[in-house]
């Protein structure tokens, strides 16, 4: 228990310092690059910096956990605390447990933060502030399919839960059957409500004897049940920064319609599986470190460990981007690498646990 508290305290201390330093560096560098294109409003600039900080945390927190483990381990070696723990009867696995427990706990909290839109969509919001001086810009020319219908929104405003310029095309046996035209629709009671609409119906038999096209004026129509504005905005614009709830709802809703959900699955894998490469890499790197500075060049080891961490993180990041672009399956780009790291870490853990 004494070793657990001591190591956990220093691990959290170094983690906090490293994360704050990396976030401030990224946010400061971004601000210097984009300051000229930002609004003159101090409030918008402050909100922009906050969203950029959230995005930086989302990207750099896993790295900070691994860098903090390396720093803590070097501190324990140089202060001879590591040798003292082993002399008191602690095993390598006992010394490793604080790193695994603390990093896993932080990762679980990190995953849960993706239920908050301002965190999971921080990069999108900050880019909107830079380009449009608003954190949530309207979506234009949205065209998608839903339950054998083709739907077009000239403009959708997710924040106001409203759409303008509505067209709904009904297809039957590969032929256009009906067109619904409306000026606007609002989202309420889990569906899109249209106050007034013109319904244009084409006859089944286009001949001289047919009655021709029929136009009806309808009121109080409800369409797209269950399709929330933010879900539409993210799914059909190809955005990948889903909140947990939006991603799960979209997956459940679209899976019944034979619509490709690879990007949504990839987003869920990125949220729930990708961050857990951290405790795996912590275990792998930990066992490569000797117990005393006499057995290694500390500076060379630190450089090698940081380089290896950046290499693994870069490969994972590249595979995630390939998955987002549907170049490779998300299972191969996100799940498989983390599973491989987990198996290697498990082998290392069992090897040294049995040795003690």
From TrEMBL:
Segments passing through the bilayer: 12-32, 44-68, 99-120, 271-293, 299-320, 332-349
A GO cellular-component term linked to this record: ATP-binding cassette (ABC) transporter complex
Principal location: membrane
UniProt entry tagged with the keyword Transmembrane: yes
Pfam families from the UniProt entry: LptF_LptG
Keywords, sorted A to Z: Cell membrane, Membrane, Transmembrane, Transmembrane helix
Gene Ontology biological-process annotations: lipopolysaccharide transport
Membrane topology according to the record: Multi-pass membrane protein
Location(s), subcellular: Cell membrane
InterPro entries: LptG/LptF_permease (IPR005495)
Top-level taxon of the source organism: Bacteria
PANTHER family: SLR0882 PROTEIN-RELATED, YJGP_YJGQ FAMILY PERMEASE
Name used for this protein in its record: Putative permease, YjgP/YjgQ family
The organism of origin for this protein: Sulfurimonas gotlandica (strain DSM 19862 / JCM 16533 / GD1)
């Amino acid at each position: 228990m004494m070793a657990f508290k001591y190591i956990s305290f220093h691990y959290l201390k170094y983690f906090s310092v490293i994360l704050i330093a990396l976030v401030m560096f990224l946010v400061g560098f971004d601000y210097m690059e984009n300051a000229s294109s930002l609004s003159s409003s101090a409030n918008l600039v402050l909100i922009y910096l906050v969203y950029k900080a959230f995005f930086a945390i989302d990207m750099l927190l896993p790295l900070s956990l691994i860098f903090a483990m390396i720093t803590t381990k070097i501190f324990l070696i140089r202060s001879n605390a590591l040798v003292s723990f082993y002399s008191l009867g602690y095993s390598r696995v006992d010394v490793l447990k604080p790193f695994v427990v603390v990093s896993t706990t932080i990762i679980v909290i990190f995953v849960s933060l993706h239920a908050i839109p301002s965190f999971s969509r921080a990069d999108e919001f900050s880019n909107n502030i830079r380009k449009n001086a608003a954190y949530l810009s309207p979506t234009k020319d949205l065209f998608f399919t839903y339950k054998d219908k083709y739907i077009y929104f000239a403009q959708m405003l997710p924040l106001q839960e409203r759409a303008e310029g509505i067209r709904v095309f009904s297809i039957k046996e590969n032929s256009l059957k009906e067109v619904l035209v409306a000026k606007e629709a609002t989202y309420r009671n889990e569906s899109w409500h249209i106050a007034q609409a013109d319904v244009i119906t084409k006859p089944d038999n286009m001949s001289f004897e047919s009655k021709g096209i029929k136009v009806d004026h309808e009121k109080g129509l409800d369409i797209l049940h269950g399709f929330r504005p933010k879900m539409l905005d993210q799914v059909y614009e190809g955005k990948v920064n889903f909140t947990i709830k939006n991603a799960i709802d979209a997956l459940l809703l679209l899976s019944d319609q034979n619509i490709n959900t690879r990007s949504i699955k990839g987003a869920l894998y990125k949220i729930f599986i990708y961050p857990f490469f951290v405790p795996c890499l912590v275990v792998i790197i930990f066992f490569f470190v000797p117990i005393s500075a006499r057995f290694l060049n500390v500076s060379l080891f630190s450089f090698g460990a940081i380089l290896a961490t950046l290499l693994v993180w870069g490969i994972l990041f590249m595979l995630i981007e390939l998955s987002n672009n549907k170049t490779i399956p998300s299972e191969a780009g996100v799940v498989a690498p983390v599973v491989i790291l987990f198996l290697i870490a498990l082998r290392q853990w069992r090897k040294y646990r049995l040795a003690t």
